[in-house]
């Protein structure tokens, strides 16, 4: 079940990519879902995209320069 305030989205993903994300998540002591969200936020920040803070931890870190 999705967390309140979060959008649920079914994701089809290559098994090898899933395995790597699962490995990273375990290393970082995160769930796979949290790791995917972290990686998406990191990718957006690298592109200079800033998310608005929605009060649910939805804000992003400052964009990398």
Would you mind describing this structure in some detail?
- By secondary structure, the protein is mainly alpha-helical.
- 43% of the residues lie in helices and 0% in strands.
- It contains 2 helices and no strands.
- The model is unreliable at 59-65 (pLDDT under 50).
Q: What Rg do the Cα atoms give?
A: 13 Å
Low-confidence stretches: 59-65
Please, how many helices? Answer: 2
Biggest beta sheet summary: none
Query: From N to C, what is the helix and strand string?
Result: HH
Estimated helix fraction: 40-55%
**Overall mean confidence score, pLDDT:** 85
* First-to-last CA distance: 36 Å
Q: Which structural class should the secondary elements be placed in?
A: mainly alpha
Apparent shape: globular
The number of E-state strands comes to 0
Provide the β-strand percentage band: under 5%
Name the descriptors:
globular; mainly alpha; 0% strand; 65 residues; disordered C terminus
Give a concise summary.
This protein has 65 residues and is mostly helical. Helices cover 43% and strands 0% of the residues.
Describe the secondary structure blueprint for this structure.
Elements: H1 15-27, H2 32-46
Helix pairs in contact: 1-2
């Amino acid at each position: 079940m999705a967390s309140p305030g979060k959008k649920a989205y079914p994701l089809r993903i290559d098994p090898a990519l899933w395995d790597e994300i699962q490995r990273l998540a375990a290393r970082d002591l995160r769930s796979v879902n949290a790791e995917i969200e972290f990686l998406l936020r990191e990718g957006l920040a690298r592109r200079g995209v800033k998310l608005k803070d929605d009060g649910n931890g939805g804000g992003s870190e400052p964009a990398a320069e």
